[in-house]
Specification:
alpha/beta, Rossmann fold, 2 domains, eight-stranded mixed β-sheet, globular
Length: 412
């Protein structure tokens, strides 16, 4: 049996696509071990039932899990806590590396922010003489430059050098956005054959619309716009609430907003909703298992996707869009870059610029006033595009082919 060792600071019960990747590998006959952290995202505190000495070794869906200590990032945007969270997991991983053992065919690193989370995987792969593949979700240094206004040329150069060092140590780099693959080749100097673009395919369960009697009874008579995922500053909920207020004030009081998720900004968003007088049309369902998401798809008339202006917008399609397309429902967006172009060119919804309240308001009204047939046609186009470009099994096969047969993707 082929064995894969996965390093990922975040793993189940946290909701990240690496869960689906590992589960899919097990279903295809691979032995998968995961080295991960203590679940604390997005709430900032360790999930109930886990702890520093509790459930540090367990199994989930056939995946063997070993949890390494980390300092939780905290509920508020405390920069010190976030920094400690960033450095603590790779630091504590170093002490566990000698006890992992060998015998793995491949090492897969699921790299979010910061890039230094890949350091333990690099050390292990070198010591064990095992090929290392890094799946890049947050491309450094651009991810950090996009959210932090670093003016020091020396510091920017240092962060760039550190980031590129990590990428150069891999045997293969899996870019989650087309733009990342191109920059790995042009800026870092990675040979094209060592790179591939594989979008963040979502689990097959997102293709379902599950009928749930209680949810239908609660929402089905309203026009429902649904958001799923992490509630954080990048999601631009301030303009969502402002646009929702405009809709409510002109008499569209049957537009209801279903918010499924949690995160650092949830309390702030709830406060904004209260101040806007919209508590009767905003419904915060909280954090739920991803398998429960399709229960809300059946009552969803459209999804909402708003993201802040960022240089990362030109990298490719954000992960949030993919399950929305998989569900076969239209999308209302306030986005820039490739995601905006995708929604417009495929006629799968209505999209305006990021941070533009007026454009978002107009697009919500346009979707609300569209006929049911028009919305169904948008949703059907979204589903068809998903099946052709993002479908999970197809992308999983490309991942395995790249790792085991080094078959690169095309670079335009």
């Amino acid at each position: 049996m082929k064995k894969i060792l996965v390093f990922s600071q975040h793993f189940w019960p946290e909701v990240f696509r690496i869960n689906d990747i590992c589960k899919g590998l097990v279903q295809q006959g691979y032995h998968v071990d995961v080295i991960c952290g203590l679940p604390n995202y997005p709430t900032g505190k360790i999930t109930k039932g886990w702890g520093f000495f509790k459930r540090t070794k367990e199994q989930w869906e056939g995946v063997r899990i070993r949890r390494i200590w980390e300092i939780p990032r905290g509920r508020k945007n405390n920069l010190l806590r976030i920094f400690l969270n960033f450095v603590s997991w790779p630091f504590f991983c170093l002490f566990y590396l000698p006890f992992i053992g060998k015998g793995y065919d491949k090492v897969l690193m699921y790299q979010l922010t910061p890039v230094i989370m890949a350091f333990p995987a690099i050390l292990y792969a070198k010591a064990a003489k095992t090929p290392l593949f890094i799946k890049i979700l947050d491309y450094w240094p651009f991810s950090v430059f996009a959210v932090m206004n670093i003016k020091s040329k020396f510091l920017k150069k240092l962060i760039t050098k550190i980031s590129q060092w990590h990428y150069k140590k891999a045997d293969g780099l899996i870019a989650s956005f087309e733009g990342i693959q191109k920059m790995l080749i042009s800026d870092v100097g990675i040979p094209p054959e060592k790179t591939i673009y594989i979008p963040q395919a979502c689990g097959k369960y997102h293709e379902q619309n599950i009928y749930d009697e209680e949810i239908h009874k609660k929402y089905n008579e309203n026009f429902c716009i649904t958001f799923t995922g992490c509630i954080n500053p990048a999601q631009c909920f301030d303009i969502v609430v402002a646009a929702a207020k405009n809709c409510y004030d002109v008499g569209y009081t049957d537009i209801h907003w279903i918010i499924v998720g949690d995160g650092l900004s949830k309390k702030d968003v709830e406060k904004d909703v209260l101040q806007a007088g919209l508590t009767e049309v905003f419904h915060f369902e909280g954090f739920l298992p991803v398998e429960d998401m399709p229960k809300y798809y059946g009552v969803t008339d459209a999804f909402i996707a708003c993201l802040t202006k960022s240089i990362l917008g030109d990298f490719g399609i954000p992960a949030k869009i993919i399950p929305y397309f998989a569900a076969g429902k239209p999308v209302i967006g306030a986005l820039d870059g490739d995601a905006a172009e995708l929604i417009k060119s495929t006629q799968t919804g209505y999209c305006g610029p990021a941070n533009d309240v007026e454009a978002l308001y107009e697009n919500i009204c346009k979707m609300y006033l569209a006929t049911k047939k028009e919305r169904e046609e948008m949703g059907a186009r979204a589903k068809a595009y998903y099946l052709e470009h993002f479908e999970f099994n197809t992308q999983q096969k490309r991942l395995i082919d790249f790792m085991y047969n080094q078959l690169p993707g095309e670079v335009e």
